[in-house]
Design a protein that fits this description.
Helices cover 26% and strands 32% of the residues. It is an alpha+beta fold. A five-stranded mixed β-sheet has the order 3-1-2-4-5, with helices on one face.
Amino acid sequence: MIERNFSSAHQLRGYRGKCENLHGHNYKIEIYARGRELNQIGLLVDFVDLKQAADELVTYLDHKNLNELEPFATEQNPSAENLARFCLEKLAAKLNDDRVEIYKVRCFETPTSVAIYQVE
């Protein structure tokens, strides 16, 4: 597992309450990898590769209005749940192989409010 932090703004479409207004969060995401087989030197995934992929993703999200970024501009509401799913799907597409699976992302909007997206 690695974690990354970024700051973004969003507003929830269709929501009734203060979160329908534009506001921001200092997000933390935790990215979990799993597998059943280590490579010849005893690694599941090189942390350098995992961190590089996560940093590219964070660069896309950091200091942006999520409502202006795909898929949140047209397809999805930028909720913590959808953000966790988006992060998992992007990282899985980049890193999953025969041995490694990105299977869970925990997305913290605040230190006490977290959404988890996980594949079985």
